[in-house]
Amino acid sequence: MRMSSSLHLPLFVSRLKPVLGVLLTCLSLHPLTATAMGLTVAPQAQSCSPIERASHRQQAQPAEAQQRIPESQVVAGQHDLAWVWLGSPTRRYPHGALGSPVHAGSVHAKVKARSGGWQIVELTLPLNRVYEDRVPRIVDLDRDGREEILLIEADALRGASLVVLGIDPTQDKPRLVELARGPYAGSTFRWLNPVGVADFDGDGQLDLATVTTPHIGGVLQLLHYRPPALVPFARALDVSNHRMGALEQDLAVIVMQPDQRPTIVLPDMTRRALHALRWDAPGQWTELADLKPLPGLIERLTPQPQGACATLADGRAMRVTLTH
């Protein structure tokens, strides 16, 4: 059937786009500015800097936090967790995903007791496990006013899993306990890196996102918080949010837009292009942007309004904006 002439040009252009994309990739002719459906990437003059958010610190940082493992962070909470840090450095699990075979054998927290005072508590792992992490993440997952701690825990045989810890409020003396655990990465030295927390499926409850094995075939997973488990409900392939051996763990952002579910922006496995993925009804991924090459390897993604700032390996900064 012969089409009208008014349809020839759009059809020709739509068929030409994949060919041009392949040609640019093969010849390394990366455009400085790339626009794809709902994603715009353009150079920016200044380096990437995080958005300053006001935070209320309930307590001064305890002296005990100075004993944290090397190159790790002490993180402040906002409610019943004043501070959280990783301790008991050990080499019993010699995996260098974060650049060092030294990992944490315990997690420590300054927490609010039932009496209203503050106490330091700890949770020590058995000898077959470590916290293969550098940044405790504090969030009120079930929105009950009590905060939880998210950490990467690695098992000597089953690899890494995401664990949720919380304060047991039933005892006179507070203690840290495991509330929920996600699937293991599969075997020794298999790792995962969290993306963040948001209501990805629109049911009013917070979910968690991680990338499993980001170095050897990354899989983005969305998980429901269903104590005592973190239950996967969505997967996407060809993603990464970490470079093997790098201390930097922030290589993905969650973008919130009005009247839309959260969008996850993160690199593909080559770290030379960005995905913009949203979990939409009736239970499927929406790719908000064509995957296009960037002019360098992505080293960090810093959250910005309606997008992110991407730091490339050569030091250049790129402004990433969702426009869909």
Q: Can you give a write-up of this model?
A:
This protein is mainly beta and 324 residues long. 6% of the residues lie in helices and 42% in strands. It has one helix and 22 strands. The chain has one helix at 8-27; strands spanning 34-36, 39-44, 75-76, 81-90, 103-112, 118-124, 129-131, 137-139, 148-155, 159-168, 175-181, 192-198, 207-212, 219-226, 229-237, 253-255, 263-267, 274-280, 284-287, 298-304, 307-312, 317-322. The strands form five sheets. A five-stranded antiparallel β-sheet has the order 1-2-22-21-20, with no helix packed on it. Strand 17 and strand 18 form a beta hairpin. The longest helix is centred in the first third of the chain and has 20 residues, at 8-27. The two termini are 34 Å apart. The relative contact order is 0.14. The model is unreliable at 1-32 (pLDDT under 50).
Notable features of this structure?
mainly beta, 5-stranded antiparallel β-sheet, 1 helix, disordered N terminus
What is the compact description of this entry?
This protein is mostly beta strands and 324 residues long.
Outline, from the CA principal axes? globular
Low-confidence stretches: 1-32
Series of secondary-structure elements, N-terminal to C-terminal: HEEEEEEEEEEEEEEEEEEEEEE
The count of β-strands is: 22
- Describe the biggest sheet? 5 strands, antiparallel
Radius of gyration: 22 Å
The oligomerization state is single chain
Head-to-tail CA distance between termini: 34 Å
Mean pLDDT: 88
**Structural class by sheet pairing and helices:** mainly beta
Task: Tell me roughly what share of residues is in helical segments.
Answer: under 10%
Q: Count the DSSP helices.
A: 1
Strand order of the largest sheet: 1-2-22-21-20
Binned strand content: 35-45%
